Amino acid sequence: MSSTGNTNPGNFANRPKEEVSEIAKQGGQASHTGGFASMDPDKQKEIASMGGKASSGSFEKGSEAAKEAGRKGGSSS
To answer: What is the model's pTM?
Structure first.
């Protein structure tokens, strides 16, 4: 693993060079195959018009975890 102490397998620095090379050869095609960008434009507009209400969200409204995340903001750890 990398000497950064980060063991996240999603981090390319933590992957074997051969694997990173194979992914790079695919030119971004290896990443997401679905999601918002691949949706029908009318479906995108329908979701976008809901102004975030369609999101499952990460926190229950008013939860202590949500408040803590809000206090942290963009700061690291």
So the answer is: 0.31
Q: Give the position of tokens 């750890």.
A: 77
Write out the two tokens for 63.
Answer: 């939860």
pLDDT in tens, 40-57: 889 888 888 877 666 666
Q: For residues 35 and 42, give the distance between their C-alpha atoms in angstroms, rounded to a whole number.
A: 14
With beta carbons less than 8 A apart as the criterion, state whether 63 and 71 touch: no
Per-residue tokens: 14: 């933590």
Q: What are phi and psi of 38, to 5 degrees?
A: -95, 0
Q: 56 is written with which tokens?
A: 């499952």
